[in-house]
Write a structure and sequence with these properties.
By secondary structure, the protein is of the alpha+beta class. About 45% of the residues lie in helices and about 10% in strands. Helix 1 (about 15-25) packs parallel to helix 3 (about 55-75) and helix 4 (about 90-95) packs across helix 7. The longest helix has 18 residues, at about 55-75.
Length: about 210
């Protein structure tokens, strides 16, 4: 059995699409998944990347693209009423349900659906209260989105992701391999099924390629 670390930020529509697509993409394989929330903004800042929201034409394209992908893949997706927004309350709410920085699929899915289904404001106070209630049975005793422990777990998760070379989400780490993005799922499956390509030189060849 292979163990996959799935780095995600609930701010990312591609993380939502990948979350929904993952079981089908890896159907029939033996694997486990650890869902680890990270702060996408910190990953982007680490690499000097403004993100799609920082480039107006790319922002427009991204919104169109994810709407089409949801349609094409049969995954409900509607842009939230305000975007982008600070995902910190959601990330910390998720990690209030964790002892070690990982959350289960129920918690991750609840947070992602909160953002990406219905087209509502992800940070509406009443909706955040309802979200906390929906996760009450998963929340660790004495913890909440404002507690110090979830904040520390988020920092640790994000630092660990940066150390592993993660530069965006969704990202999947298995063994020493990093796969990025919704469109990397077929490549991830190929690795998990033992595709001989991964034993050849191509994976590491790019590191030897001079940059002009």
């Amino acid at each position: 059995m292979k163990h996959i670390t799935f780095y995600l930020d609930f701010l990312s529509p591609y993380a939502w699409l990948a979350f929904e697509r993952l079981p089908l993409a890896l159907e029939g394989l033996s694997y486990s998944v650890r869902y680890r929330p990270v702060l996408l903004g910190a990953l982007l800042k680490q690499h000097g990347n403004p993100g799609p929201g920082g480039i107006a034409p790319k922002r427009d394209w991204t919104f169109r693209h994810v709407a089409w992908l949801g349609h094409a893949l049969g995954i409900p997706l509607k842009m939230p009423a305000r975007f982008p927004f600070s995902p910190l309350p959601l990330l910390r709410q998720a990690l209030a349900c964790s002892d070690d920085g990982s959350v289960n699929r129920f918690v991750a899915g609840t947070l992602l659906r909160h953002v990406w289904q219905g087209g509502q404001d992800a940070l509406d106070p009443q909706r955040l209260d309802a979200l906390a209630q929906a996760l009450a049975e998963q929340t660790r005793p004495g913890q909440s989105s404002t507690s110090e422990a979830p904040k520390a777990l988020l920092r640790a998760n994000t630092d660990a992701a940066i150390a592993q070379g993660v530069f965006g989400v969704p990202a999947f780490v298995v063994d020493d391999k990093l796969f990025w993005g919704l469109d990397s799922l077929p490549m991830l499956r190929a690795y998990l099924t033992g595709d001989a390509w991964f034993d050849g030189p191509d994976w590491d060849a790019v590191r030897q390629l001079p940059s002009a």
